[in-house]
Write a structure and sequence with these properties.
Elements: H1 4-25, H2 30-34, H3 37-45, E1 51-52, E2 57-58, E3 61-64, H4 74-79, H5 85-90, H6 121-134, E4 141-146, H7 153-164, E5 170-176, E6 179-180, E7 183-184, H8 185-188, H9 194-200, E8 204-209, H10 213-221, E9 228-233, H11 257-266
Parallel strand pairs: 3-4, 4-5, 5-9, 8-9
Antiparallel strand pairs: 1-2, 6-7
Helix pairs in contact: 1-3, 3-10, 6-7
């Protein structure tokens, strides 16, 4: 098992790789991708998501409901051998074919659900979790949702469903970076106190620093009386000062050479 220090280094490495890929592809959603980097590193490298090395398949499922951030999975899938290095290297290079896209889909090895239309990932996760539970299959389903998806009624319907069927194999993580594409969440349509709303639905809520591997590991490991939701406090665009907490970096923006080198220096 890698040390916490090593996992911090891996998170930084993935930010470096993804930044260079965004430069190459010329599009994407870096703010949302960089806010969940440590969450994914903790889930995969601390083996909350179990992996079969012989079959090169993950035993548990993960759904990035905020589909524009699915790209954050690609370097992990590559390093686990699920996604070929060729697919990764070809992505964004003119004239070369690659299955990779800015939004993930099930044609890509290791991607468990096609997402992008917000508010549907949790419902898909509920369906998988219920199926596994009924068939007594030992699989967990991890779903990462965004605050923006809490503007969608389907998300709250899925929470009611999960609680009603006691889907304890469903692991819900909310990426709380306080921003959506239009600006600050509480200014667009106030969500806070989110924690109290989840509690009102009968969930136990564990709040943690979404960029601290130790805090995340403790939150994922903690046993609760009721179904739990991890409320991970994150920074949109984490790791790059020109992106952090700036709504426009929901999308990729053109950078001049000075800005590129500044970003590279910050993530070394």
């Amino acid at each position: 098992m890698p040390t916490i220090k090593k996992l911090v280094e891996i998170s930084k490495q993935y930010r470096q790789e993804l930044f260079e890929k965004f430069l190459q592809v010329g599009q994407g959603h870096p703010g949302s991708v960089f806010s969940i980097t440590e969450i994914l590193v903790c889930l995969f490298y601390e083996k909350f998501i179990r992996f079969d090395k012989k079959k090169l398949k993950f035993h548990d499922k993960i759904i990035i409901s905020k589909g524009h951030a699915t790209v954050a999975l690609y370097p992990i899938l590559k390093n686990f051998g699920v996604l070929s290095i060729k697919e990764w290297d070809n992505w964004g290079k003119k004239g070369l074919k690659s299955q990779l896209r800015v939004f993930g889909n099930t044609s890509i090895p290791g991607i468990d659900a096609t997402t992008g239309s917000l508010g549907h990932g949790l419902g898909v996760g509920c369906g998988l979790a219920l199926s596994y539970k009924k068939d007594k299959i030992d699989k967990n389903v991890y779903v990462i949702i965004s605050e923006g998806e809490l503007y969608e009624g389907s998300t709250w319907e899925a929470l009611l469903f999960a609680k009603h069927y006691n889907l304890d194999n469903l692991k819900i993580i909310v990426d709380q970076n306080l921003l959506i594409i239009l600006g600050k969440t509480d200014e667009c349509l106030k969500l806070s106190p989110i924690k109290n709303k989840f509690k009102g639905f009968g969930f136990d809520v564990i709040e943690c620093d979404g960029h601290n591997i130790q805090h995340l590991k403790k939150a994922f490991s903690k046993k609760t009386k009721n179904l739990k939701i991890i409320l991970a406090n994150t920074i949109k665009g984490k790791g790059f000062s020109i992106m952090e907490n700036i709504p426009k970096w929901h999308y990729w923006n053109p950078l001049n050479n000075q800005e590129i080198e500044k970003c590279r220096a910050e993530i070394k």
